[in-house]
Amino acid sequence: MALPFEKTLLPQVLRIHDTVYQKTNGWIGHRTLGIPSLLLHTVGAKTGQARTASLTYARDGENYLIVGSKSGARPHLAGITI
Fold first, then answer.
1. H/E run at residue 22
2. Full domain range(s) for residue 67
3. Which of the four pLDDT bands, split at 50, 70 and 90, describes residue 63?
4. The pTM is what?
5. Is the separation of the CB atoms in 20 and 28 below 8 Å?
6. In what order do the strands lie in the sheet with 31-32?
7. How many structural domains comprise the chain?
8. Cβ–Cβ < 8 Å for 36, 30
9. Is residue 39 within 8 Å of 25, Cβ to Cβ?
10. Which of 12, 24, 63, 76 is most buried (CB neighbours < 10 A)?
11. Beta strand residue intervals within 7-48, DSSP E
């Protein structure tokens, strides 16, 4: 069961973090709430449009794990179709 903080304040904090992190090209906001982030720069295969996404990552021995979950949002609530 989600706490009110997780439903209201946390999404706003994460949106602000994402905006600041991307606008500063990663200079501000590498760690938010103790969680490291990275900026993934990609180019759309069909559109050729440049895109940047903030993702969470963690170390697993010598490897890195990258999480792209839209903060655990359910697809139908986030406007994503799978």
1. helix 9-23
2. 4-78
3. very high
4. 0.61
5. yes
6. 31-32, 35-43, 50-60, 63-67
7. 1
8. yes
9. yes
10. 24
11. 31-32, 35-43
